[in-house]
Amino acid sequence: MASKKDGGKSEEKWVRAQQKAFTHWVNIALSKRSIRIESLEEGFNNGLNLIALVEILTAKQVTKKYAAKPALRIHKITNCNIGFDHLKDPNIGGMKPHMITISAENMVDGNSTMLLGFCWTLLKKFQNLGGDEGKGKANSYEQGLLDWVKKALAGSTYSDIHQHLGDNFNFKSEAFKNGKVFLGLLNELSPGTIDYNSYGVNNHLPNCRDALELSEKHADVPAIIDPDDLASGNASEKEIVLYLSLWYKMFNEKQISFSSQALQSQVTDIQSQLKSLTEENEALRLANQKLSSTIEEDTARLNALRAQQEAMQQKLTEEMELQLRELQDKFDSDKDSKTREITRLKESVAMGGQGSADKVKMMEQNIADVDKEREKLEEELAAFKAQLEKEKAELDEKNKALQKNIAGYNKDREGLEAQFQKNQQDRGKKIFHLRKAMLHHLNNMNEWKVFLNQQGMTYESEDLHINLAGEISVLEHEKIVEHLASNISEEDSKLQEFLKKAKEEAAPAKDSKSKAESSGGDDKPKKSVKKSSNK
């Protein structure tokens, strides 16, 4: 039976473990404001760090006026009460009054017991485990941690402890006693740090020692449990719950880091798409400009050819008709004249009767000459008509060639117009896919905004999807690209500013940790990674 002295030492040991764990937990949260405390008792005694912590946990700013440089005790107490009121606001912290078991006076005085109880309450209230873990069950927070461990170690790598992670999995399970749960979590959080399969399931104490020491060294999870207690099954449920809470916090922080990198990568990809689309859009715009100019020039040339053809055809027709009328008139006139002369000569012959043979012969000769002249005139008229027909045929050939050229120009114009329409459709499709990618990206940004706010990392993004859905539909292609480029540029600037701020806030905490390790490093011998086997 343990003596009272042993019980007192055990209690003191547990208090120190809680102080170490909660100081670490609080510092992870406060690192987002580049704040670090050395102890819970002194870290909250003026209320300012309490206000910063509750703002981070609730992702809401404190609206009440508080003392930024509290010098008097009353100012410090007032600051603490303002922090408590923020937590109790049903629209912000949502904590019931009875959940806050510490008074402002206790906090200012640094009451360790009350502070630890307050930290336990904050841990269970604001360490959101996500999903449905533990809902509707007794001790839902504790059950949520167990469910989270099952999910984290569900891979085939950890098949050696799956038999212990069933429905009866609890804080006294063999997987905790042999240290394999924490070795598995270390392997998941920091792959390559250990060779998980080299640790046998029956090497309880060596496993527990390595798990606790290497986790503090490589995963920044403070060793708050005695490895002997853990290996023997004497570690309390509260100790394991608190230790698992620190593990969950580190997994959560790593997920936030990966999320920020994923957002940055997504922004870079969309910027690359925008740049490519902008270049293609400019090339298409120039091509369309050239096509439009070519279509206009060809149309003007076609219209000019049509007008020229019509004018030539009209002129030739008029000239031919005029010459034909003149020849016809001349022929008719000469024909009438010669016909009258022949008639006169015939009458003279008839009236002369038995005139001299020479006179008759002369008259016959005159008649023959007139007939020859008439035949010659008819031949000339026929030749002229043939020439006109030939010129008309040549004009018809030229007209056909011109019509063929016009048809060719029309076909080229139709091809250019079809190419122009295709270019317009291609640009529309590319801009549609880019807009879809933008909307997907902005939805991701909004989802991560909620997630980051839950972790106390304030990130204000523009609500751009409304603009994209409404305004963009009435813009021209070039304006759409400019609009998308402007939107993603603004979002990228905000994300860059957010990442820069996150890195700046993380740097002081890392430096402080390095100093703390260097100051305490001489008291603790270095330990290499142990590998044991199940023999």
Description:
Helix 1 (4-30) packs parallel to helix 12. The chain starts with a helix and ends in a 15-residue tail after the last helix. The chain has helices spanning 4-30, 40-43, 48-58, 73-88, 104-109, 112-126, 140-152, 174-177, 180-189, 204-218, 227-232, 237-352, 357-454, 465-470, 477-520. It folds into three domains: 12-126, Actin-binding Protein, T-fimbrin, domain 1 (Orthogonal Bundle); 170-235, Actin-binding Protein, T-fimbrin, domain 1; 256-499, Orthogonal Bundle (Helix Hairpins), CATH 1.10.287. With 535 residues, it is an all-alpha fold. Helices cover 73% and strands 0% of the residues.
Could you outline the blueprint of secondary structure elements for this entry?
Elements: H1 4-30, H2 40-43, H3 48-58, H4 73-88, H5 104-109, H6 112-126, H7 140-152, H8 174-177, H9 180-189, H10 204-218, H11 227-232, H12 237-352, H13 357-454, H14 465-470, H15 477-520
In short:
The protein has 535 residues and is mostly helical. The protein has helices at residues 4-30, 40-43, 48-58, 73-88, 104-109, 112-126, 140-152, 174-177, 180-189, 204-218, 227-232, 237-352, 357-454, 465-470, 477-520.
According to CATH, the fold-level topology of the largest domain is Helix Hairpins
Question: Which CATH architecture of the largest domain would you pick?
Answer: Orthogonal Bundle
What is the number of helices? 15
C-alpha geometry: rod-shaped
DSSP summary, beta strand count:
0
Largest sheet: none
Mean pLDDT: 78
Strand content: under 5%
The share of residues in helices is over 70%
CATH class annotation of the largest domain: Mainly Alpha
- Alpha carbon gap, first and last residue: 34 Å
**Domain module tally:** 3
Indicate the structural class. mainly alpha
List low-confidence stretches: 131-138, 464-470, 519-535
